[in-house]
Amino acid sequence: MSIRQRVLVLYLGTSALDSPVVGWSVYDGTGRTSPTTGDGDEPPYASGVAALRDGWRLFQAAQLIPPYPGGEYDVSFLKHEFFFEKLVDVASGGPGYG
Fold it and tell me: Which residues are within 8 A (CB) of 56 and not within 5 positions of it... i.e. 6 or more apart?
């Protein structure tokens, strides 16, 4: 058995896992695909919960940091970032995503 990791990064509209996806990235340690940022108009999942239902495992969520006084409306990075993984057996052609 030869296991490789696939990583899915979802940026959600809020800190809730059932909120809509507003940005995403996919990284494929199997080498079968080479996704790049901006290569699709539709996110792979509608929410973090949808990714969980498809077998992705959540392993990191962004810290909830309140805005600094006066900075509530500053434009910055996407702060509701969630990392998911799937372990894929490359010898058997295990599951992908989507």
Answer: 8, 84, 85, 86, 97
